Structure formats: structure tokens, C-alpha cells
Amino acid sequence: MSNTFFQPVSGMDLPRFAGIPTFMRLPHVPLDHVRLSEVQIGIIGVPWDSGTTNRPGPRHGPRQLRDASTMIRAEHAVSGVRPFEAKRCADLGDVGPNPADIHDSMKRITAFYDSVVKAGITPLTAGGDHLSSLPILRSVAAKAPVGMIHFDSHTDLYHSYFDGMMYTHGTPFRRACEEGLLDPKRVVQIGIRGTQYDSEDRDFARAEGIRIIPIEEFHARGPEDVMAEAREIAGAGATYVSYDIDFVDPTFAPGTGTPEVGGPNSYQALQVVRGLTGVNIVGADVVEVSPPFDPSGATAFLGVSIMFELLCQMAVQQP
To answer: Model's pTM, two decimal places?
Structure first.
């Protein structure tokens, strides 16, 4: 099948400030499109932040990320990977959430991703708060638990918030373990830091066999050594990659709801994704970009740069 339809619009043909913005200037292929079956990697927006417990705003993330992504070009400057030639990629649009109902929104998200997975498409998601990962995993890991490489300043492994609230952006991976969506012994969380309510989340991780690499260890060892361990933990099995933008120090990514100081710089933010080579990625997300806290768009541009790095890793996978 011809790949011409799936090529992004070049800035040499139409200025990057012109035209209707789609992710990386790719064609928009909704779920009912006649060419959906040809798509191999689908980029999806989840404009939803009902799991946020403090500063809202990630519901606006996908729109700002799309706009920023018009600056993405066709070739990776270091690896030489040209992802839009290696795989047929498309913008599949946004999941339409119900901002008044967490559970209905999660059902809608899962139903959307069920269609994506059924079509044989590998999803790359722009969130949304981190609770978005849970309903996505319900589709991606429906047949068997997956491993996960998780970049974040928080574990998101808490049991509950506010006396029994089980579904927030601080609980998705606790629920994913309980639901059998994640294999805890194939989960690694990188960059964890900041003050804590208590150690309940880390105690759960230790009991389940989840590997936490705190930021102090990350800085002491460096990205290459840490990512070598991450690849070993993930192994050859199906692996989900979840990237919270607050993994990055707020000096470089201020546009997020729960920033934590002492994190990686913007170059290290890209380095860790380059360290995913060989990982069997069955889905990935970049979440918690919150435009109200960075109207300049710098956080969003870092976010889509990370998405492009992820796309390049996904594009060179076989088949």
C-alpha cells in the first residue's frame, strides 16, 4: 500500500503556522475512516483531567501539544530514523470525555482504545492527567498483563485519596496492578522524588516487586546506566511506556500541575527515551502537560519532542 497519504505536510510546502493543526501535521484519520485499517501507529488526544487533585489544566494539553507539534520535522537528527516512512502514522483525533463523570469517561476512553487495538494500531497518547493511563491499559493489556517503564516524579501507586476516592491521578498504577493489567516485576519507575504524605506507595511497590529508581540514584548513575537496567526489567515482553512531564525539572517544564524540583534537564528528558531501543513498546503516553501554567508553550514543545522520540522508537520495531 502507498505511504504517500500518511506523510506529514512539509514546512517547505505550507508554513508551519498555517493549515489545520494535527499531531505532527499528519492526516486526521477518525475511527470511522475508510483508511483506518492501514494505520500502524495512531496518535490520540485524551483531553481529560478529572483525576487531578490540585491544579487542573491537563484537559487543555492535547490542543496545545497539537499546535506545538507543527514544529516537528521528518527525521531524527541523531538516529536518522524517519518514522513517517517506517510506519503509517495518523492523528486519530480525541477521545470525547465526560468531564462530569470519572467512570463514564474511563469507559469512553477504554471503548475508543478497544477500537484502536482491534484495528492493530499501536497507540501514542497525549494526555490528559495520569489517570488517563488506566483506561488505556484496560485496552492495551486486555489479553495479558504488560510491563511498564514509567518516567515520573511520583509513583502514582497510592491506594486512595480523600477517604476512599480510588480513582485519581495518584492511583492509576495501583489500580492497574490490582486489575492484573501490569506485571509488577516488569515495572520500573524512574525519577521519583519530592515530599511525601507517607511511604504507603513505596511500601506497596516494594511488596509487589516494582523497581523504583529515585532521582538521587538517577543523577548518580546517569541516564545510560539507568536505562540499561530499565530495558533489563522490561525484558522482551510487551511493555507500556508512560511519561509524566513532571519527570522533568520545572525549570524546563513548568506547565504541569504537580511540579517537583531537582529533576532531569530537557536533554536528559530526551536521552531516557533514546534508551528504550529494543523495548517491545505496545503503547505509550505523555501526560500532565498543563497549558494554564505555561502559556509560552515551552512545556508543550518539550512534550511533543518527547512524543517524537517515542514515535521513533515505536517506528523501528518489527514488524
So the answer is: 0.97
